[in-house]
Amino acid sequence: MNELLDLSLVDWSRAQFALTAMYHWLFVPLTLGITFILAIMETIYVKTGNPEWKKITKFWMKVFGINFAIGVATGIILEFEFGTNWSNYSWFVGDIFGAPLAIEGIMAFFMESTFIAVMFFGWGKVSKRFHLASTWLTALGANLSALWILVANGWMQFPVGMQFNPDTARNEMVNFWDVFLSPVATSKFLHTIFSGFELAAIFVIGISAWYLLKKREIVFARKSILVSAVFGLISSIFVIGFGHASTQQVAYHQPMKLAAMEGLYEGQNGPGLIAMGVLSTKQSDPEYKQLKNFLFRVEIPKGLSVLAYLNTTQFMPGIKDLLNGNSQHNILSAPEKIARGKEAIQLLKDYKTAKDNGNTDEAATLRAKFMSDSFQKDYFKYFGYGYIKNPTDLIPDIPLVFYSFRIMVMLGTYFVFFFFFALLWVTRGTMDKKKWFLRLAIITMPLAYVASMSGWTLAEVGRQPWVIQDLLPTVAAVSHIDASAVQVTFWMFAFIFTLLLIAEVKIMTKQVKIGPKDGGH
Q1: DSSP string, 392-459
Q2: Under a CB-based contact definition with an 8 Å cutoff, are residues 56 and 220 in contact?
Q3: What distance in Å separates the CA atoms of residue 478 and residue 501, rounded to the nearest whole number?
Q4: Could you tell me if residue 465 is left (phi over 0), alpha (psi between -120 and 50 degrees) or otherwise beta?
Q5: Single pTM value for the model
Q6: Mean pLDDT along residues 102-107
Q7: Computed from CA positions of residues 283, 284, 289, 290, in that sequence, does the dihedral angle turn out positive or negative?
Q8: 3-state secondary structure of 54
Q9: Tens digit of pLDDT for each residue in 323-358?
Q10: Where would I find the H helices in 104-172?
Q11: DSSP label at 357?
């Protein structure tokens, strides 16, 4: 199948999906976090009866509405691309991947869209408590949507709870709870939503800082900063904690990703963590073009071993170990995995041929062999490797993964201190005097988006060439369509999404300039 595939089709399909996903993710994290900030603000209003809190809530609700409307449009297109551009993927795992997406649509999205109407248009038409409940349920619905999508994504990174059916050539779910409660999905969900909370808190603080610099809506700005600083500080601590949990899962289930993001080429016992470093353009080994030397690096001794395994002596395989194998640590070489994957693919083909030709006894024997525990464990486990031509194709883009990880971590650490001082100074009543910090708060807003994008770049580029870890590479997942059709839609989407983004920024800017005097309406 791959021999006849136009590789430009794979590249353009990947580019289109990446474009759609990245534009979509510009809107999602703000929605995840600002809904809970709204709910907290409205709770304070209901508890205190202070109309100032109602005005604050209604203003940020308007900002949320602008962001939500455009985010939905990009999300719908993203889901359609699974069928148009990645039909082989949809066929291979649609029974599993489709389940959480269906639940997201039926339960979370409809819940969110139902109560969002009450939240926006129910002021004065329903009781305060019912309106408050609607706001909380909107927040819950938005984050439940993220839950099911991230469960699906987590399964792609660590496929569990399924069994391959050779009669249909599809993977079928056999244990929903294994998929739902996968440690990879759990840590990914928690790390992602708390990063969304963090971004939303920075967004609210940044807009409020602008008001303080302009000496407008002082009480509104101070109260908004107070809520967001507490919310953001708690969230930033959880982001670091669940980020650590995610790193541990990567170490156990995606060692090539971890080796790439650390620039670890040779396996080590108790490897250090590179706090910062710069890769050169020179190759470290002529046999492996992707491996680059370091111009310089600052390393924390034993840090990576502690981060990933909570000890200082754990052996961590490098990229060369994962490609060449390491018998001492029971690591199969990439060529051996490729050979086993080809054998699994060939056995499946032989079974289908025997079945199609009516050779019942031969087909039954081949099926029994394919479904045996030993074959599933030793051969089907590497099914996707059978589509890999060159072992070095298993190496992800090292510079992109390496720098994405460090940008995410450094900014995440900075955000903790940012929230701490924002909370300290707003509670002391000295925030208005910190002009430099107010300007820094505005600059921090785009940095929050950079950190969020860096995290997703690390997660998705780091697992290449896999769409489903070890089972389906990107080259085998793409739809067999004309590459020119994908190019046309790529540029069309790029144009439309850019217009939507410009429209959002303009509408949001106009809304901020109007201010919260009438509750943002």
Answers
A1: GGGS--HHHHHHHHHHHHHHHHHHHHHHHHHHHHHHHT-GGG-HHHHHHHHHHHHHHHHHHHHHHHHH
A2: yes
A3: 28
A4: alpha
A5: 0.92
A6: 80
A7: negative
A8: helix
A9: 999 989 999 999 999 999 999 999 999 999 999 999
A10: 110-121, 128-157
A11: T
